[in-house]
Amino acid sequence: MDVESQAGTRGLKLAADKGLAVVVMEPLMGGRLADPPKDIQEAMKECVVERSPAEWALEWLWDQPEVSVVLSGMSTMEQVEENLEFAGRSRVGSFGEREQALIRLAREMYQARAVIGCSRCGYCMPCPNGLDIPGNFEIFNYAHLYDDVATAKFKYKVFLQDGQRAGECIACGLCEEQCPQGIAISEWMPKVEALLG
User: Fold this and answer.
1) Which of 28, 30, 46 is closest to 86 using CA atoms?
2) In whole angstroms, what is the distance from residue 121 CA to residue 146 CA?
3) Could you please report the per-residue DSSP string of 154-175?
4) What's the pLDDT tens digit per position in 180-191?
């Protein structure tokens, strides 16, 4: 999912080109990729190669020649045993076009679940009232991407400071004049607050 966020694939390749080992943390995004929404699970079941969602995610990482180590959190002995089994049979280049196509499809299906088409360009910022507009939208979309409102509410309360949350929007419209995606920001903020506040 994070091929373009933070360092992403570009950073992975840059580090490898410089001879640096790359350690991937949170490969299952805190377990969310191990339990995807039903529509994505169904797409995975249709692939010729049968794998659990966790195995798909881990195998995709181990297929990348630039990845040195994958650190996956595990809560049970069963998860430890599964991860050892997956790692034991993994190898670089093991994914064929069919597997790569499924990963692209799953990523597209996740991304299609995003409700607000914010690219986090930041042109709407700074908000004269102090809102973190892209941050609010990112957390709202997160709730929909992963069917995980509880974690999104936690992020909303912890990662956004007082005054940065959607409930502080006064609908001045200045941000909307700057938004290249044409998002009706002042209409979305009450919806963000209603779900996460």
Assistant:
1) 28
2) 22
3) HHHHHHSPTTTSGGG-----HH
4) 889 999 999 999
* CA 40 – CA 72 distance, rounded (Å): 21
Cα separation, 141 vs 60, whole angstroms: 24
Please write down the long-range contacts of 8-12, taking CB distance under 8 Å and 24 or more positions apart. Answer: 12/64, 12/66, 12/67
pLDDT of 147-187, one tens digit each?
Answer: 899 999 999 999 999 999 999 999 999 999 999 889 999 99
Q: What pTM was estimated for this model as a whole? A: 0.70
Write the Ramachandran bin of 132: left for phi over 0, alpha for psi from -120 to 50, otherwise beta. Answer: beta
Give the helix/strand (H/E) hosting 106.
helix 97-112
Amino acid at 82: E
